[in-house]
Amino acid sequence: MGISVVFLIFFLCQLSFSSSIFLCPKHQSISLIKFKETFTTNPYASSKRYFRGQKPYPKTSSWNMSRDCCSLDGVICDDMTGHVIELDLGSSGLVGTIDSNSSLFQLSHLQRLDLSFNNFSNSHISPEFGKFSSLTHLDLSDSYFSGQIPSEISHLSKLHSLSLSGTGSLRLVAHDFKLLLQNLTQLRELDLDFINISSTIPLNFSSHLTTLRLSGRGLYGVIPESIFHLPNWKHLT
Question: What are the UniProt keywords, alphabetically (predicted)?
Answer without folding.
Answer: Glycoprotein, Leucine-rich repeat, Membrane, Repeat, Signal, Transmembrane, Transmembrane helix
